[in-house]
Structures are given as structure tokens and as C-alpha cells.
Amino acid sequence: GAVVSQHPSRVICKSGTSVKIECRSLDFQATTMFWYRQFPKQSLMLMATSNEGSKATYEQGVEKDKFLINHASLTLSTLTVTSAHPEDSSFYICSARQTENYGYTFGSGTRLTVV
Amino acid sequence: EDKVVQSPLSLVVHEGDTVTLNCSYEVTNFRSLLWYKQEKKAPTFLFMLTSSGIEKKSGRLSSILDKKELFSILNITATQTGDSAVYLCAVPTYYNDMRFGAGTRLTVKP
Q: pLDDT, tens digit, for every residue of B9-44?
């Protein structure tokens, strides 16, 4: 079955630094990937949709200059949280869609803590 | 290592059929298990289960947890084409992050 690998699973960084999160589709080509954010006791919140080879589409309220998304190949998407602040501490999870008619596969998520 | 395993990964049925989706887990300091339905983008929340043997129902959907055997099932009766979606099982870990299963892709044919 389709597998999406997300790394790192947990990261702690200092305020003002940048953190990169990777999401890889291991056995299929992901034409579309989604990045979610989850606050405690809440459901996933879609941050952005990225399509291979084109710019990501950000949801309303999500700062595109702060959350840089790159989907340069059919198997890799990255989310970079730039100039991180404590309020960026959250759980980030990616999801990949193989084709228009295929379901979604989630990565295992990344717990980001900014201190 | 915390782990959530769903089965089957894919299921195709016809309208009116009843389906059972499975989720097993291995999580340190278990507190709850959640079910989500995902159709287009963000998954939508279905149930949160914390106690064994207590069935939760919402219309044609129901779910139950077995904390002794470390699994949960999600039942959908009299399925409709609108039930076609990916159903996700997730468990918060000791560190409060959510470990998701790979999902079950349900297709309901007319």
C-alpha cells in the first residue's frame, strides 16, 4: 500500500531559527500533498496544498512567507517554518494523494516545539 | 514505538451493505482513540473513544473500543455513496502528538 514517510517526528528549536520538515511518498508518486497543523484537542487544520512543480496554495490565514512549502519532485514535499516562534509550536502532518481517484495517505506527523 | 494499524486499507461495497473498519494500536500511556472521515481535504472528526465497551453512535455510524485487546471498530450500516471516503483512526501519544493509521479507503458503489 501507499506509504508516506515524514521526518523528523519530533523537533525542538530556538526562537528565530528555521525548521524543515520532510514528507516523502515511498512507493508512489504524489502529485498533490497537503500540510496540516493540529492544536491540542483539535482536529487537523489544512495549511496548504502543494502540487508538484507549482506554487503551493495556502489556506486563508496561513502566512506563506512563514511556512515555506516546496514540492520539487513527485516524491518529496518540504515545509519550512521560518523564524519560528513559540506560538508555532504545534503538530504538523502531511498527506499525499497519488492520483485524482486515489485516497489520501498521511505521514506520521512532526511535533514542533519552539523554545 | 507507538503504532496504529488500520485494516483493510481498501474496501469496495454496494449501497445498503454494512461495513466494519478495524483499528489496532500500541501506544504508551493510552488515553483515547479517534476516528476521522476524509473526503476531499481536511479530515472531519467522527468519534473519540476513551472507555472500553461503550458504543458511540451517530446516525448510521457507530464505534466501540476494546482497551484490553487494543483495538477499535467503526461500523457503517446501510452504506450510501456519500460514505465513500478515507476513514482514519488516530491515537494521541504520550507526547500529545497524534499517531494516525494509514486509513481505510471505502468506496460505495450505487
A: 899 999 999 999 999 999 888 888 989 898 765 577
Could you tell me which of A13, A50, A20, A45 has the C-alpha nearest to residue A34? A50
Q: Chain A within 8 Å of B28 (Cβ-Cβ)? A: no
Which residues have CB under 8 Å from B58's CB, separation 6+? B46, B47
Whether residue A103 is predicted with pLDDT greater than 60 in this model: the reply is: no
Which positions ≥6 away from A113 have C-beta within 8 Å? A10, A11, A12, A13, A89
Cell of B75: 461500523
For residues A13 and A110, the answer to whether their CB atoms sit within 8 Å is: no
Chosen from B98, B105, B109 to mutate, greatest number of chain A CBs within 10 A: B98
Q: Where do the H-state alpha helices sit in chain B?
A: none
Secondary-structure percent of chain A, ordered helix, strand, coil, rounded to 5 = 5, 50, 45
Return phi, psi of residue B52, to 5°.
-70, 145
* Nearest of B44, B42, B33 to residue B83 by alpha carbon: B44
Residue in B41, B95, B100 closest to A108 by CB: B100
Torsion of CA B82, B106, A106, B40, to 10 degrees: -20
